[in-house]
Amino acid sequence: MSEVNEYKCPCCGARLEFNSAAQNMKCPYCDSEFPVSTVENYNVELNNASGDDMSWESSGGTEWADGETANMKVYTCKSCSGTIIADETSGATSCPYCGNPVVMAGVFSGDLRPDRIIPFKLDKNAAKAALTKHIESKKLIPKVFKDQNHIDEIKGLYVPVWLFSAEADTNMCFRAEKKKRWSDANYNYIETSYFQAVRAGKISFAQVPVDGSSKMPDDLMESIEPFEFTQAVDFNTAYLSGYLADKYDVTREQSVGRANERIKTGAEMAFRDTVTGYDTVKCESSSVKLNNAKSLYALYPVWILTTTWEDKKFIFAMNGQTGKFVGNLPLDKGAAIRLFALIAAAVTAVCFVISLILSGMGG
């Protein structure tokens, strides 16, 4: 027996059936009808995706040279077990992530040597000023927090990052909708037209970063992007002087999944932006094949600031190159309730005025 193809409805995605009376394909759920040729073309494009091929060369990081790590020490956090690297003159006494004590674990050795590093461009004073500006710009935080806030810790930290670069051959199929609305004396009408938009082409991605530290929250690290990689230089231990460096505990292989996710999302957004003139656009299928896929191991500069409020620790991060600053703040619930009440009162007043106007028109 020959295989029977299953055709999907372009409107609702349900399985279409052949209607002998109309000689068309008909959806039993939304009652839409389509010529057989239209449905065949639609499903050919929809099933054209051959699956992703997003493999990477095993690269990124090199071996340390003899004697290069002689002046580098390793500190281990008693609480989160994080491993921090610093030069031998560093007086590291607390973990930049959780603030708990760190102890000397010995001379640094092993693991991979970073390929590139972005040196710190902004100093500690800039980080302090950024925190003050960040706090002052927020309205719904306790006034006491603003007045009494103090910084518990501020540390310059090089965060390990895996960088992925590739050229992506992409094939995507989008379903687009366009709605037409009109009314008569009795009814309001909506006519929905469905379209299929196919996009294919190449798109390049350069230095897509994936955080190589499990202690640094991914959302926090991604929130202070982008870093300007054109200012990166070949790694040299001299850049670590006066700063701390996190030792990666998320491998390149473990980072590939997140890199592929970011690349596929980026490709979909780029091609989605070319489908214009419709009310809604949705990606139905896609395939991404990577070429010249390579990776690097780098260190990115980040200022970590911590402050405590009512026994709760708040962590902030600043891009040590661009100054982009992020972090959560406590909420003044009383102020938030008052603001909500004012908004509700304003909306109620507007509705009341509109009601009076409509009543007057009816009279």
Features:
363 residues; alpha+beta; 3 domains; 11-stranded mixed β-sheet; 3-stranded antiparallel β-sheet; 14 strands; elongated
Q: Name the poorly predicted regions.
A: none
Radius of gyration, in Å, reads 29 Å
The number of domains: 3
Strand content: 35-45%
Helix-residue proportion? 10-25%
Mean pLDDT: 80
> So what's the overall shape?
elongated
Number of strands: 14
Question: Short summary of the structure?
Answer:
Helix content is 24%, strand content 35%.
Question: Explain this structure to me?
Answer:
By secondary structure, this protein is α+β, with helices and mostly antiparallel strands. It folds into three domains: 1-47, no CATH class; 72-169 and 198-331, no CATH class; 333-363. The chain has six helices and 14 strands. Strands 4, 5, 6, 7, 8, 9, 10, 11, 12, 13 and 14 form an eleven-stranded mixed β-sheet that branches. A three-stranded antiparallel β-sheet has the order 1-2-3. A hairpin with a 2-residue loop joins strand 12 and strand 13. The longest helix has 30 residues, at 333-362. The radius of gyration is 29 Å and the shape is elongated. The model has no long low-confidence stretch (mean pLDDT 80).
Topology:
Elements: E1 17-19, E2 24-26, E3 33-34, H1 36-46, E4 72-77, E5 83-87, E6 102-107, E7 116-117, H2 124-136, H3 143-148, E8 153-183, E9 188-211, H4 218-223, E10 233-234, E11 244-246, H5 252-272, E12 280-309, E13 312-319, E14 325-327, H6 333-362
Parallel strand pairs: 7-12, 8-11
Antiparallel strand pairs: 1-2, 2-3, 4-5, 4-6, 5-11, 7-10, 8-9, 8-12, 12-13, 13-14
